[in-house]
Each structure stands twice: as C-alpha cells, then as structure tokens.
Automatic annotation (TrEMBL):
PROSITE patterns in the record: LDLRA_2 (PS50068)
Domain of life: Eukaryota
Membrane-spanning intervals of the chain: none
Organism in which the protein naturally occurs: Microcebus murinus
Signal peptide stretch: 1-24
Name of the protein in its database record: Low density lipoprotein receptor class A domain containing 2
One Pfam family from the record: Ldl_recept_a
Key word Hydrolase present: no
InterPro entries found in the cross-reference section: LDL_receptor-like_sf, LDrepeatLR_classA_rpt, LRAD2/Mig-13-like, Sperma_CUB_dom_sf
Compositional bias of kind Polar residues: 266-276
The keyword Cell inner membrane is assigned to this record: no
Length: 276
C-alpha cells in the first residue's frame, strides 16, 4: 500500500493534502443547531438553510448555539458578511432571559422586535457580550475572551424577518508556531488560509492574499457542508430579494426597510475592546 502511495504523481498527492485542509472549513445553519455546541477551526454560519433566498420567519424562536475554540488557549472571533434581523410587527410582551445571563433592557431599541445576542463564558454561566443587535446594518465583529462564544436568536412579533451570514474563526495570540500568522498578529489554523469562499478569518485579509505568506491563487476546492437541517424539516419562509450570482454577498443589505418600519440598529461590542 505504501509503495503504491509513493508511486502516485506528486500533483495528486498535493491535491489530496489540499482537500484535507479545506475539509476543516464547514458550513452550518444556526436554527438547525439550537441547543448544541460546535467546535472546530472555522465555520461559515448562516441563519437558516434558505439564507439569501427566503427570510426566516418562524415566530417565537429562541435558539441558542455555542461555538468552542478548536484548541486550548484559543478564542473565537465572529464577523458578519450579511445581516438582517427585525420584525415588521413588534411584540408587546418581554422575552424571558437566559438563565444566568442578562436580558435586553426595556429601553433597548431591539426590545420590541427580533434580535441576536452574543455571550461569552461557558454555556452554564453565560455573560452577555455587548448589547443585542438588530436592524439592517452589519454589526462590528466580536471576539470572546475565552474559548466559548454564544449566539442567541430571538424572534418576536407576528412578522419576524431574519437572514444573516457570518464567519466563525478559532484564533490565538502570541507565538504562532505551526499556525498562520496574520498581518495583525493573530494566529489562525492553516486550514483556513486560502479557503474556497475567501473568508477573511484574519480580519485583515492577509489569509486570502495572493502574496506570501498566504500566496493564494491556486485552484479552489469545495469545502464540506455540514449542519444542514433534515430534508423533511419545514420552516415558514418568505421570498427574499433575488441577487445576481456575481453580486457581492452583502449587496442585499442596502435594500430599504419595509414601509412604516425603521429597524433598530445596534452594533455589537467592538472587537478591539475584547481582544488584542
């Protein structure tokens, strides 16, 4: 078996190594992973399986997902590529808080409608990370101070509208060792460098640069897709603004809010306040 492997053309061996590398980048849907903890190098996280085609409109959703860093000593960074979370008809009742965590303040502009809240700390003792986010403006990136980052999606009102896409990155500071060193000093797993979607896991674009040390520009391989809901599961959907296949992923964020509704816009805690 070893002899056969050694006789394989070098090009095929390199292609196989690349396939193993990109397999570490996964895709998942938040509403399909409610109550679970995901751990890995990197993740392209969508709000739901029909993201960018239909809104997620299921009312009274309270979905929590925890993401855990790939290795001890690492932290989690999350940044949105596209963001849309609000309700056409706001709710009158307050949402029950997460046990052990603070809930949105009544004066918060997200309080009447749907929102997304970040948490850090372990799942058993979560701490709110910044204010709830909602509206049409892409929030600032956030980073945990430890290995866990939690996301909680709450939909309220009779007509919630939810659709977002974000990038999850496990990273560390200090000596990078075998990890890729970003221009900004962060260290990310080598599996996230030159990925198929061009995700900015470094936060400065250096992991997708055509120049060394990333030296991207070779043939792209399609990453694995995991975390998709069962084919039989059905979620109420509403048609979403169609986009051209060549358009940027966040182009629809420029669309106007429905008449008579001015979605609240709140930014998450700036990553500069939580990471070096």
């Amino acid at each position: 078996m070893e002899a056969r492997l050694l006789r394989l053309p070098q090009r095929l061996l390199l292609l196989g190594a690349a396939a193993l590398t990109v397999s570490a980048l996964e895709t998942a849907d938040l509403v399909a992973l409610c109550g679970q903890t995901w751990q890995g190098d990197g993740l392209l996280l969508r709000s739901h399986s029909e993201s960018r085609r239909f809104y997620f409109v299921t009312p009274d959703t309270d979905c929590r997902l925890w993401v855990q860093a790939a290795a001890p000593g690492e932290r989690i960074r999350f940044q949105f590529r596209f963001f849309l979370v609000y309700s056409l008809t706001p709710a009158s009742a307050a949402v029950s808080p997460t046990p052990g965590a603070s809930s949105p303040a009544p004066a918060d502009p997200c309080a009447p409608g749907s929102f997304l809240q970040f948490y850090e700390g372990s799942p058993g003792a979560p701490r709110a990370l910044g204010a709830p986010v909602c509206g049409l403006t892409i929030p600032a990136p956030v980073a945990s101070s430890g290995p866990f980052l939690g996301l909680r999606l709450v939909t309220r009102g009779r007509q919630p509208r939810v659709d977002f896409v974000g990038e999850v990155t496990s990273f560390r500071s200090g000596p990078c060792g075998a990890y890729f060193r970003c221009r900004n000093g962060r260290c990310i797993p080598p599996s996230l460098v030159c990925d198929h979607w061009g995700l900015d896991n470094c936060g400065d674009g250096s992991d997708q640069s055509a120049r060394p040390p990333a030296d991207c520009g070779g043939p792209s391989l399609v990453p694995s897709q995991t975390g998709r809901p069962d084919a039989g599961a059905s979620k109420p959907t509403t048609p979403f603004l169609p986009l051209g296949s060549a358009g940027p992923l966040w182009a629809a964020a420029e669309r106007s809010a429905p008449a008579g509704r001015d979605p609240a816009q709140r930014n998450a805690t700036l990553e500069g306040s939580t990471e070096s």
